[in-house]
Structure formats: structure tokens, C-alpha cells
Amino acid sequence: MDPRLSLAGLVVGIFVGLSGVGGSAIMAPMLILVLGVKPTLVIGTDLLYSVPTKVLALFLHQRQGTIDWRITRMLLAGGAPGAIAGLVLFAVLKARLPIEALEATLKHSIGIAILFASAGSLVLIFRRKVPQDDSTASPLDKPLIIVAIGALVGVLVSLTSVGSGSITLPLLVFALPATVMRRLIGSEIAFAAFLVPLAAIGQSSFGNVSWGMAGSLLVGSLPGVWIGAKLCKIVGDAWLRPTIVVVLAIAGSRLL
Q: pTM of the prediction?
């Protein structure tokens, strides 16, 4: 058990509980830039440590009825093949690049994904208000777009660990602006609960997982999420989300 990793998990958990920003977008640069962990190990371990949180969130959203399974199924129709494609791409890079070049390539890829996440957070801050429909029976008229979003996120998650929440949600807001936010959040969480374990299993087959590191992160992140959720009731996010956007942008640029 590494107290530094538990502290990192605590900090990330508090941010996630406060803002809802995807934990991987914050955790990955912290592990690489602050703690000096190799990108290959960061990707697999980050995915593994995220699995319990995603599954718990799925259970909670299912209980409160905020998942639109039609959206989730469309995301998975693209996300599952996308995740497999990302793992195949990882295998190709691993086979053809020297280890130093592979680590550098993955580091840059994580930086690009985090910059996408930063842009996605801006979308959520400045999103245009439109009339929203809370009906579960309203038809989805953009199935190909939703499948394409799932495919893009699937590749990014399996290749970088970033994107299951921080990129999926902004893209869904663009694609389905009339769907209430809580239903989009529940649907993308359900999507991540299936996608992240698939990507984690794939990365573990490459030996890119540290169970001890994942355990240390969970020791801090689970209470951190609880603390952040409690603070969220008394701390406004008018300043928090823009701050996180800036932090993500700086971290992403440092990884390029």
C-alpha cells in the first residue's frame, strides 16, 4: 500500500465528487507527471481501479431510473468494437515500437485525450439551454451518431484510459440536446460500466496492470468521492469547473 497513491486517489475522488469530471482525465496526468509512473502502467491500472466505481455508479443510477438503455445499447454497439480496435492498435504499437518510443507515444496520446476532455468540459459549462423531454418513450432519431460516439470513446478508453465520462457526456449533449441531463449522465455511466472492464481486461493481458497500485488508489478515491459529493451540496461549481478546464488543459499540454 503506497500512501502517495492513496493521497492521489483522495484528491481525484474529491474532484470527481465535486464536479462530475471523469476521474481518469485527472488521475492519468497526476500519475505520470507528479508520481513518475510509466504511461503503459498508468493506462491499465487506471482502468482497473475505475471498475468498482463504475459498477457502483451503474447500480445507483439503475435504482433511481436515470438510465436510458436505448442510448446505452447504441453506445455499446460502437464502443465494444471500438475498444477492441484500440487494443489491437496498442498491440501493433507494442510490437513495432521500442519501449521508449511506445511510452512516449502513449504519453502524447493521453495528452491529446485530456485536451479533448478539457474541451468537453467547456461544452458542459457553456451548453445552450433547450427545452428538454423527460419522457422515456421519446424516439432516438440519431442512432448512427450515437454508435459513432461509442466507437470513438471505445478506442480512446482502451488506448489511453481517458474518455468514458469526460468525452462521452459532452458528445451526447451535442447529439441529444433535448434529452434531460440526468438521463444522459445515467446512460453514459452505464456505458462506462460495461466498456471500462472490457478495456481493463484487454490491458491486463498486456501486463499493464498493477493490482497493488489500483488498491492504493481505491483506498483514497472511494472516501474522496463521498467527501466531494457532500461538499458539492455547499460549494458551487461556478468557479470549480472553469478551474478544472484550465488544469486539464495545462496537464494535457504537458503530456504532448
A: 0.85
